[in-house]
Queue: 2 jobs
Job 1
Amino acid sequence: MEKRGLYKVDLIFEKVDPKEVLTQAYNMKSEQIIQQVLDSGLKGRGGAGFPTGLKWKYTAAVKEPEKYVVCNADEGEPGTFKDREILDKVAYKVYGGMAIAGKAIGAKHGIVYLRSEYRFLLPQLMKELESFHKLVKGIGYDFRINYCLGSGAYICGEESALFESVEGGRGEPRNKPPYPTTSGVFGKPTSINNVETLVTAMMIIKHGPESYSQLGTKDSRGSKVFSISGDTPIPGIFELELGMSVQEFVDEFGDGDTKAVQVGGASGFCVPRKRFQYTVIGFEGVPTGGSMKLFNSSRSMYNVLHNYLDFFAEESCGQCTPCRVGCQQLLKGVEKVKKGEVKATYLNELLKLADTMKVASKCGLGQSVGNAFRTIVENFREEIIY
Amino acid sequence: MISLSINNERVSVQPGTTVLDAARKLNINIPTLCNHPDLCVAGNCRVCVVEQTGARTLIAACAMPAAEGMDIHTNTLKVRNARRHIVELLLSEHRSDCTKCYKNQKCELQALANEFAFGDTIFLDLVEDHPYTIDRSSPSFIKDDSKCIHCQRCVRTCFELQHISAIAVANKGMHQKISSFHDRPMSHVVCTNCGQCINRCPTGALVEKTYIDHVWDAIYDKDKHVIVQTAPAVRVALGEDLGYDPGERVTGKMVTALRQLGFDSILDTDFTADLTIMEEGTELLTRLKKALVDGDKKTAFPMFTSCSPGWIKFIEHKYPEFLHNLSTCKSPQQMFGALAKTFFAQKMKLDPSGIVSVSIMPCTAKKYEADRPEMRASGYKDVDYVLTTRELAIMIKQAGIDFRNLEPAHYDSIMGDSTGAGVIFGATGGVMEAALRTAYELVTGREVPFPNLNITPVRGMEGVKEATIKIEGCTKDWKFLEGAELKVAIAHGLANANKIMKQVRNGKSPYHFVEIMACPGGCLGGGGQPIPTSMEIRKKRMKAVYSEDEHMVLRKSHENPDVIAIYKEFLGKPNSHVAHELLHTHYVERESY
């Protein structure tokens, strides 16, 4: 693999003339739009990394007059705050990306599902939405966007739980299949994309897939907005090319004493110092929805793990057994190990449980609790026990 | 057709078939828990996970549609490990006081534990980590959250079958629980006490409130005369809890068993079912006369039956503006209760204060009904204790009775005679059929024009049934009905009742008379009936009900000799003053949240 350095990029926050890009997209065939996004190699920026072009292609292929573009702005992964910045700075590009997605899949309705904690952004977002509606109407689009506010549950960032929430139900993930591309919100074909994905798609239309796919690596094309926090002298939002190693990242953002980086938030992976050099940030290594949290040697990894497990035990929807009860068992288990009330080898049982949760949980939440658990317990076992 | 492979065996199934059903076709058993044949797929317990070659995770067999070329394995190491973990996880949040539990040996979690989780417990006990409630507020059932395993069968039952949602999921994560509106006690929410949730709860989290010990105390009390009445639907289901297959009629053996248990008078609710037909039929004809002859525009139509206490509470909560449409007749249980401590006491020269009146019902709402303040027409509590079919089976077992080898016997006389019309009260459409058999004959002097008195349009398991009966050749008194078309409808399950009620509220209801039963299938599918229940089982019980009817000599309520006698000796005529005092009631509006 070609060794890459750290390249800062300015794509997401780049100022563009929305009229120009949207007119350009309006004059393209929907297949052309989808092909360009496919060619760019763009994968979903929410964390799961499903190829955006494919998602659009599948949704476009369903013959149904009523379809939806949903913008997932329920940014809830601990340590992620890039969508907030994007909505704050370039909401018109989010709307633009939705209109383009609508054109690509044949949808007239857009829904932005906004995290309730971002309610304070709403007045400004609505104002921008008004001018967006005028703009796209002028160009000829038949596309309108509505807002839907979350109520504070982490699980509502999961696509099918989000649909349930939009429809007025409890935020509980659905059984899949059917997938959103055939039966999403209100049972209609839906393309649900992350805020950043939609902006990126718009920029791919503007700059062309070739120039975009020159950024990043084979498995992780393009750039990504990172939310950097923890023990760093320069916390904040940074747009970086994908494909760097954790070492390169730490060299830039660390405080000189970094012992671990949690990549991808609570549901992501903990990379210890000894693995910095060998771990690529991207789909070939550790994927991330943007959250990068640095820990220096003053931090107790037990506390870090406990914090995450506490979070999951609260934020599981509670519907399926492995996740609802598994999270509680992991939490109570590490507490008992720490207190010496059970043997340290009990951690091995818990690791097996984490494996079960990974393969038997209903949705991505329960399936990814084991990521942080395994990587922290395996790499910092002594901090958990003593 | 879709072709797939399960444990290396090929099977072809229709599109839409789940992996679970495909496996069943091959007689491969995949354990399930949250799955129930009456309810939508939930896929949340995950007990049914299986391995699909090439899939990243295991899949829930109950929720996964079979797809062409699938390669499924149900018994791999990965599956076994996951399944064991899942059962252990469920056990860790379940208060396992199995030996003392009402559902001991009838608990689906216990059965799974026996199969998959014997030996040392892996996980930590979580039960005491959460505050839990044992809600005993309802006279009908107990809701014990410490035994709940969150499968949501009850929630789906209450929503899908009954359109009530008295219980729903509250909170998330570790705090998730099955709760009522604002965590109110079950006695103070819109709950009809129908007990359908009990029939589907896999554990002891929802069970009927049992009065077995009270009844034993009464039986052993020498100063008490203990009367027992048995509802129509009990005789076609009791056998299921005593080792028989569904659909076996055990009427005669049940009577013998009751006698052996020590009840003093073994009587039949079917008798008051027949009496209900006389009262309710007369009420209907009176209403029709008022509307058609007297031109009284205030007479409310359609008239609704009032036998099902779950339905009564439903309409009191949800559609109180239509309480006038309800027949004022008490249910057969309560008519019986009122007569037991008046007419029966007089005839038998018993002091009513020394009578303990027990009823065996397929129903949990009957426990609530017996407690209603309106149900004290005799001056005492008309029905003292209500036991479900399940509770009777327990008593029979407790007494060491060898049920299978009992000689059948007959009910005692005075209030023990019945007709086929009374028996069919146990099935949806039965009250309607019984009413039509009598009313038609009363008005025209001829039998209903259906072969062998079987009014087939009102039978069957369809959610809402309707029929139109043209009345021709009326006798002199009923000339005003000549040529009239009587439109009737039947709904069972409150979700179907809701359909009828929406129509009524919109002013679009064309019916004169509507029978509504709270439970799917009518009383034979009642909340007090043996567990498990499914459409297949209910159909078998239904067949037994109609077979019981066909085996009766008398099949029309007005021919019941005990009914004829009671009008002659005690009540006068239907809807008389005495009848109103004892056999009719009124209803109350209840809050709708």
Job 2
Amino acid sequence: MHSNADKERKLRFDRIVAVLYPDMYRYAAWLSRDASVAEEVVQEALLRAWKSLDALRDDAAAKPWLLTIVRRENARYFERKRLDTVDIDSLTPAQSAMIAGGEDSEIRDVREAIFRLEDDYREPLVLQVLLGHSTKEIAELMGMKQGAVLTRLHRARLKLKAVIEEMAA
Amino acid sequence: MDSKDYKDIIAADPSAPFDDSELSADERARVAAFRDEMQALDAKIKAALSVPIPELDLPALPPIDGSKEAGANVVDLPLRNKPRLTTPVWLGIAASFAIAAVLGVRFLGDQTVYPSLAAEVVAHLDHEPYALTVTDTPVAEHRLVKVVGRSGAEIDTDVGLITYARSCVINGKTIPHLVMQGKRGPITLLLMPDEMVDGAVPLSGKSINGVILPVGDGSIAIIGEREENLSEIEQRVVDSVTWRI
């Protein structure tokens, strides 16, 4: 028999994951730039989150807590597998599929440009534009100063703008 | 601040409000145009980042602390009274492996050095102790197909109740790590299409027994509880696995 505490714990976990799983996956997908790797990373992150759920005092803080776990699991994954950074000219089928999605060719170009961005620039952009984090929250999640985040975001947009204009020319 | 400073602020966060009243009308117009441009860029970035999200595939969740069961589908199989073997015990077991194990030095991503395939296989079990959950909930079929297929293998799902599937790394290669349910508890299967062994390599310890079996140009590790009769399972597993490449 399950104790009430066990059931409550599982319900709490399910409730949090149901809301935040999409953000976990999208973050993992853009950290790894590989849909298959993202699934692995999220699976591992879910297990870690389950085991350390009691450390989450306030469910309102669940999003940064889960994204931090995803970030660490992604780092562990690449450390374990010793994968190099993605070479845009030799993408795996999974990586190519991630770029190719969607009908709009301009959006595909933008996606490819985001793929080309260095990790340091792509990650804060994903956190801000896609996941709606403030620069303060991004700084906390990435363990950086807010000023450094602002600089990276600024450079990321200007780099993207330049690459997109170059593609369009 | 001049219009360049404002543009820097906008490029860092186009949606953030700010007061540009100190600028001239011309400068304000230029800043506003830049802001519009950056906001349009953000709309494209957001659309580009919106990749499809696969259906949530929740892994088997291990029991926590005093919990005796992992979920509603737990079956009545004998659970160990003590936790999984600790690292020192495993190392002891690894040291006692049959000499027939593949000799040589193996380097993993974490730079751990293993003296043999057998030692690496056993050490790997301790990396994912939560895989050894007693449950009757099968792993999602699409996940099983994906994990096994990634290594260039196929498995007949009639082999038994498979409750865990994950891509892992053995000797630097990605391989499927599966867990099926035996009569005495969980049984670990490591499908290793690139790891040849000359003959069956027995694995034994205080709480486990197992074997690495040669299969074509590769091998399969099968490890269960000490009391598990693996001979009933070995042939079934070998017959159910095909190397595609």
